[in-house]
Amino acid sequence: MSIDHIGKRIKQLRLRQKKTQQQIADECNISKSLLSKIENGQTSSAIATLSKISNALDVPLTWLLEDDDEKNLVLLKKGDRQSKVGDEHMGYSFELLANRSPYTGVEPTIVHVTPKDTNLREEMYTHSDDEFIYILKGTIKLAYDDDEYIMEQGDTAYFTGTKPHLFIPVDNEGAEVLTLFIETEMSVN
Predict the structure, then answer these.
(1) Nearest to residue 60, comparing CAs of 70, 72, 75?
(2) What is the Cα–Cα distance from 170 to 139, expressed in whole angstroms?
(3) Rounded-to-integer distance, Cα 6 and Cα 29, Å
(4) What is the per-residue pLDDT across 141-189, written as a single tens digit (0 to 9) for each?
(5) Each residue of 46-65: pLDDT tens digit?
(6) Under a CB-based contact definition with an 8 Å cutoff, are residues 122 and 89 in contact?
(7) Buried-exposed string 116-142: b where 16+ CB fall within 10 A, e elsewhere
(8) What is the number of other CB atoms lying within 10 angstroms of the CB of residue 68?
């Protein structure tokens, strides 16, 4: 899916919900200018930012990223999958593995961690979902809430997305990380 199409979906839903750019930007803790650029297809956005926007609009992340109708079975052949979405200068790109129902709380993706020499990302991410990761290929350093952990092929982690985190490449081989974003129910008192 193109960044232009993602932006149009965000804008259409925001207008349908009669929300301003400033309201969504404030809820996502991003600038109104960044949201405007995303809506107009002028910039790629990190999955964490798209996750915040999808939460602010009360839709699953896949709704922003995929066109398919809701289905009980999601079968997606490798050749039919979008290969990569995003900008490698963000530190990674990703591919969505399934267009899940709006009523499920799991978003499976493969995150392609940018090789060390081309990775410009230093700022850590936060989002409202929990995250499970499985290192498919390569090695990363997981920066998480003031600590760092070396993770190699076969290693797993489960963590709260509200804590600052970042996948840091350790070499120029890059890495592939199976990532499940898991929606958490927050109780409001």
Answers:
(1) 70
(2) 6
(3) 19
(4) 999 999 999 999 999 999 999 999 999 999 999 899 999 988 775 433 3
(5) 888 898 999 999 888 877 77
(6) no
(7) eeebebeeebebbbbbbbbbeebbbbb
(8) 11
